[in-house]
Amino acid sequence: MADWGWEYNPDADHVIGETPNLAFVAQVEARADELVRAAAALYLDGTAYQGQSAGVQEEVLPGGCSSI
Question: CB-based contacts of 2: which residues, under 8 Å, 6+ apart?
């Protein structure tokens, strides 16, 4: 599982900017941690995985904003 992780891309400022809703940011980060654990369970040898990617998917969390 040490091979799996998540990060803001390209960085936190680009993704969340100066949002005042830190509770929502914490909720997003918690959900990202859940996804990392799920990926580690699904792809046990992540760095050696050669199959098709699950692709980009969307997660909608309460309190989020659909426009930037």
Answer: none
**19 neighbors 61 (Cβ within 8 angstroms):** no
pLDDT tens sequence across 24-45: 889 888 988 888 888 787 776 6
Beta strands in 19-60 (DSSP E): none
What span, in angstroms and rounded, lies between the C-alpha atoms of 23 and 31? 12
Whole-model pTM? 0.61
Amino acid identity of 63?
Answer: G
Q: How far apart are CA 68 and CA 54, in angstroms?
A: 26
